[in-house]
Amino acid sequence: MSDTTPHSSPSPSSGAASPETHVIDYRAAEQLLAARDPRGAVKLLDSVIAAHPENTAARLLRARAFFAAAQLRPAELEFELVLEREPDNAFAHFALARTHERSGRPEQARKHFRLAAALDPQPEYLQAARFED
Predict the structure, then answer these.
(1) What is the pLDDT of residues 2-27, one digit of tens each?
(2) Which of 5, 20, 27, 119 is the most exposed, fewest CB within 10 Å of its CB?
């Protein structure tokens, strides 16, 4: 039995989505992003974030979806919000750097690439940081 609709939980009284529905929407958004449907992922995440604006994981996923959809300004704003809450999130620094890079702002990108590499010296982060330059 395969139900592809994310809002399959009945809500007889108010019509509001349940916490379980938000989890289902988040997981479905992950799948949509993996399947290269970032706009579909953003639509699902909008309702999750409206109900749980403090959910950093949902915001990070939405930022990734915006980036994948080439919506760079919304991606930048979401990555920055994640970094306000989690300044030591190396992935968010790296992704924000990629966003700046695609927006034609190499100096801002370099700063965040270097922060990502300093926080988590993964080969990809170190290579992007170009410390030898």
Answers:
(1) 333 333 333 333 346 788 999 999 99
(2) 5
C-alpha dist (Å) from residue 31 to 16, 78, 101, 129: 23, 20, 26, 30
CA 69 from centre of chain: 12
The answer to whether the CB of 26 falls within 8 A of the CB of 48 is: yes
pLDDT given for residue 18 in this prediction: 84
Tell me the pLDDT tens digit for each residue of 47-67.
999 999 999 999 999 999 999
- Label residues 84-106 b or e (16+ Cβ within 10 Å = b): eeeeebbbbbbbbbbbbbeeeee
